[in-house]
Amino acid sequence: MQDHDPSGAHRAGGGHRDGRRDAGRRDAGHRDAGHRDHGHQDHRQQDHGHRDGGHAHEVRADADRRWLAGALTLIVAFMAAEVAVGLAAGSLALLSDAAHMLTDAASLVLALVAMRLAARPARGGYTFGLKRAEILSAQANGLTLVLLAVWLGYEAVRRLIRPPEVEGGWVLVTALAGIAVNVVATWCVSRANRASLNVEGAFQHLLNDLYAFLGTAVAGLIVLTTGFARADALASLAVVALMLRAGSGLIRASGRIFLEAAPAGIDPDTVGDRMAAAGQVAEVHDLHIWQITSNRPALSAHVLVVPDGDCHGVRRALQRQLREDWGITHTTLQVDHLGEDDSGTLLQIDDRPRAPRESGAGTEVHGTEDAHGPTHRPGEPPH
């Protein structure tokens, strides 16, 4: 039931104006509180530096898909023809090349799927999104390469013992055609974003295929001119060696990411010592460096600053140093003043309990007892 009393309407209007005034006062209070909180964060702050330049490391979805799809089309078409010719000619070298190209095709398919998954925004329990989908595909591709290499190696040894008849002419012609196809396919993949581990793996596989086709062409020429049938099996063993090298490399690289190891080329001890040497820094501990996905390093650390130091200034200086020296743009730094914690108790470095750890020279080096990993302080010898 609506109230049409003019006085009631006036009171309601006045109430709206009073509400607006109250809201304005509340907003002003929030702004003041924000300024006060900002000031308090000089003593304790956790800052997340996510300056990725608009996610510059993300796959360039549309352009990359076109390049990879073009390479995939070439590979699948030629692979089908190579299987047919290899079976007709009885050439294990051609069949091994086709098997290798099958893994290349699979890696490209997985790369395309991983691009779509990695592009999805982070939500729910997947706080980093699905950016490690490419690492899963790279590891699966590496395992497939190793398993195929084992099977092809067994077949090559068996044919070395009992070499079958091989049509050298078909082998030579098909290998020369494969060289042309692989040159074009490798160029297509090289145009995509090779910061992605599985895209880079596909590129390396295609490059290895190119070398393998060269070996197969030589084997076909030898069979054609001399009748030495074992040349085909020897070429297969060369392909097996390339597959094992590429597969183990992918497994090793993807395993480092899954095990949260520091990126290759970044030494955590060096990073910690350099951070501790920055101005106004008293100590750095709980330092962790890992990769979210290919070419996406991340870092977190607890930094203690001298009592009268500028926490914000130190944090900005450290983030700039990490970005410029090591390319680490995803940083989480907890910065505290040395001298007090949340409970008001003093934080004194020299009075902290320390736990011994072994150094490379066999001597004991002491670090903070509750720290994960070594403690870095200015003026101490490098770790």
Automatic annotation (TrEMBL):
<feature type="region of interest" description="Disordered">
    <location>
        <begin position="339"/>
        <end position="383"/>
    </location>
</feature>
<dbReference type="GO" id="GO:0005886">
    <property type="term" value="C:plasma membrane"/>
</dbReference>
<dbReference type="InterPro" id="IPR058533">
    <property type="entry name" value="Cation_efflux_TM"/>
</dbReference>
<keyword id="KW-0813">Transport</keyword>
<feature type="region of interest" description="Disordered">
    <location>
        <begin position="1"/>
        <end position="56"/>
    </location>
</feature>
<feature type="domain" description="Cation efflux protein transmembrane">
    <location>
        <begin position="71"/>
        <end position="258"/>
    </location>
</feature>
<dbReference type="Pfam" id="PF16916">
    <property type="entry name" value="ZT_dimer"/>
</dbReference>
<feature type="transmembrane region" description="Helical">
    <location>
        <begin position="140"/>
        <end position="157"/>
    </location>
</feature>
<feature type="transmembrane region" description="Helical">
    <location>
        <begin position="101"/>
        <end position="119"/>
    </location>
</feature>
<protein>
    <submittedName>
        <fullName>Cobalt-zinc-cadmium efflux system protein</fullName>
    </submittedName>
</protein>
<dbReference type="InterPro" id="IPR027469">
    <property type="entry name" value="Cation_efflux_TMD_sf"/>
</dbReference>
<keyword id="KW-1133">Transmembrane helix</keyword>
<dbReference type="GO" id="GO:0005385">
    <property type="term" value="F:zinc ion transmembrane transporter activity"/>
</dbReference>
<dbReference type="InterPro" id="IPR027470">
    <property type="entry name" value="Cation_efflux_CTD"/>
</dbReference>
<dbReference type="InterPro" id="IPR036837">
    <property type="entry name" value="Cation_efflux_CTD_sf"/>
</dbReference>
<feature type="domain" description="Cation efflux protein cytoplasmic">
    <location>
        <begin position="272"/>
        <end position="337"/>
    </location>
</feature>
<keyword id="KW-0472">Membrane</keyword>
<feature type="compositionally biased region" description="Basic and acidic residues">
    <location>
        <begin position="366"/>
        <end position="383"/>
    </location>
</feature>
<comment type="similarity">
    <text>Belongs to the cation diffusion facilitator (CDF) transporter (TC 2.A.4) family. SLC30A subfamily.</text>
</comment>
<dbReference type="Pfam" id="PF01545">
    <property type="entry name" value="Cation_efflux"/>
</dbReference>
<feature type="transmembrane region" description="Helical">
    <location>
        <begin position="210"/>
        <end position="228"/>
    </location>
</feature>
<feature type="transmembrane region" description="Helical">
    <location>
        <begin position="67"/>
        <end position="95"/>
    </location>
</feature>
<feature type="transmembrane region" description="Helical">
    <location>
        <begin position="169"/>
        <end position="189"/>
    </location>
</feature>
<keyword id="KW-0406">Ion transport</keyword>
<dbReference type="InterPro" id="IPR050681">
    <property type="entry name" value="CDF/SLC30A"/>
</dbReference>
<keyword id="KW-0812">Transmembrane</keyword>
<dbReference type="InterPro" id="IPR002524">
    <property type="entry name" value="Cation_efflux"/>
</dbReference>
<feature type="compositionally biased region" description="Basic and acidic residues">
    <location>
        <begin position="15"/>
        <end position="56"/>
    </location>
</feature>
